[in-house]
Amino acid sequence: MRLNLSVEEVAREIFNELFSPEQIEQMLEIDLSEKDNISIRPELSIENCENWASIFDHICGSDTEQNNGNPSNNINLLLASYKFMDNCPGTISFYKNNIKLYVSYLIENVNKTGFVGLNSALYTVFFVIEDLITHESFHHYCDVKRQLTSAKFDINLEESLAVAHSYNSFFQPGFQRVFNIRYPYLYDKYQRLQFNQPLLDKIKNQNRILLDYLLKEHYNAYQANCYKNWHLHTHNTAYRTDFFNYIKNDQLDSLVNCGVPLNNVFEDIKFIKYEGAVIMLV
Known about the structure:
Elements lengths: L1 E2 L3 H12 L2 H13 L20 E7 L4 E3 L8 E8 L7 E4 L1 H17 L5 H32 L5 H15 L3 H10 L14 H24 L18 H9 L2 H8 L7 H8 L5 E4 L1
Parallel strand pairs: 2-4, 5-6
Antiparallel strand pairs: 1-6, 2-3, 4-5
């Protein structure tokens, strides 16, 4: 168990355990040579899985423990959790072995459509970790707001909103730009790919296709009942209505009616993020 890690450190450790140094060198050569006939498989491979995959997270508090439910599919993976504040920081935990299995599954599918080079492997790992931290940060945000408003905790609504928020984030131009800047630095040798404009153009096109695949495959994997309505909260006004209505109280509502701009929830979430929470790799 490791404490107080950065998101980048979590992603880097998982990436380095998924692939051997020799495989990473081979992936680097694939990207540099633009070969398309080599398939790199993670050391943890999952084959012949039906109904793959259902993923879920876990929310627990000091007095009661709420489990999102273990869906009835063949393979269900707990990827992350959030523990409520109780006179101590909230805690975000990443479950390394399960994340490795899940990322291996995603990379296996990417392999079926072509090959996995250093760029696509890094991108896939970072995408999953970024989704998880955005999702758990939303639980942290709601926990903070409840300390102020005493709003009621509703696990089904909160989980649906958490998935919707993470999904919405990937469609924000600023979020995508920062994401695309951050993920290459997970691996130092990626810099050898820089200043090769034809290759960089190829990588950008590859990432657009890869992101479309990951958005569909990953968010469809939230199959437990508590997540099933997430798509109802992805519309443009959801943050001002669905999200605000969940964490408000009567006093906040009356202030909004007087013109005080307290329902800019998306900007509020970006400001709080996971500040004050402890990040663990379990």
